[in-house]
Amino acid sequence: MGDIRTLLHIKSSNRMGFIENLAKGFVRSAVNQIGRDGGRIISNKVYKDTRSTPIQLVGFSNGDTHTGTSNNSGFNSRQDLKGAGYKTELFRSNVVLYFFMVIGCEILPIFGPLYWVYLAFRNFFKKYTRFYCYTQKPVYVQDRRYKTGQRHDGYTKVKEYSDVVAKPVTSERIVFIIKGLIALGVAISLASFQYSIYDSWNKPTTDVVETINLGTVLAERGLNMRTSASGQAEILTSIPFNESIEVISTDGPEETIGSKTANWMKVKYKEETGWVWGGLIKTE
Questions:
Q1: Backbone angles phi, psi at 263, to 5 degrees
Q2: Burial of 198 by CB count in 10 Å (0-12 exposed, 13-18 middle, 19+ buried)?
């Protein structure tokens, strides 16, 4: 019995010792972290961030980007702008974006086509060309270890326009005119499409009544129906006297047989279609 009590006491002591060591380790880690952060804050206060923790700056490998500023009022020519990394802006938006703009304008009656007309005339009468470049703007995040309360965290790519513009040269003017013509074509297409839908919605629905003209054969010996409007054409069948036929057309060539002149008629008898001389047909 004494051995069991001794064993339980040992296990209880070990458990308490583990909890105490864990708590001491946690407190020691927290104190060390506070000491490190406090030391950095004091160091930044004294040395004005000159001994702050170094951060690797992330930039762009694209040659079109630079760290210039928008203060470019000292540029006097295109050469100055291009030398500073600026490009002429001929297409302001991505081509894929234009596609979605066309789709969106299809559901805007009147306003959609008018918007593209506006784009067309804006390109036709464009008086200047703008210049742009991509700059690397610094990004900052909150960090209490720094005197300013912010830490530099790399760069972001930003499209920036110059304060200087120029009159379009011939090649640029041609591009603007082509863009204007395309926009005008889109406007006309959208207007036509929307008008066709509007017209179909407002068109009254009427039942089409088909008129069938009938005729009666007057030839007592029957009337030959031929493959074409000629007395020399091949005979398809002979239509009996007083038989009814369907008259499809009476605009065939005129022909005189005996003392009577009449046009050839295109007719349908039973399941066959052919031509008969109209002088032996009585139409109803």
A1: -90, 155
A2: exposed
> Residue 243 and residue 267: Cα distance in Å, rounded?
12
List the CATH code of the domain at 213-283. 2.30.30.40
Instruction: Going residue by residue through the chain, which has 284 residues, state the pLDDT in tens, using 9 for 90 and above.
Output: 445 444 444 555 555 566 676 666 666 766 566 666 655 555 555 554 444 443 333 333 344 444 444 455 566 678 888 888 888 888 877 767 777 777 778 777 888 889 889 989 999 998 888 888 888 889 888 888 887 888 888 889 888 888 888 889 899 999 999 999 999 999 999 889 888 888 777 766 555 455 678 999 998 889 999 999 988 899 999 999 999 999 998 888 999 888 889 999 999 998 899 999 998 998 87
What's the CA gap between 115 and 109, in Å, rounded? 11
Distance, CA of 135 to CA of 121 (rounded, Å)? 31
- The residue type of 196 is S
d(CA 17, CA 15): 5
CA dist 215 and 91 (Å) reads 70
CA distances 30 to 19, 33, 34, 146, Å, are 17, 5, 6, 20
| Domain definitions of the chain by residue range | 65-202, 213-283
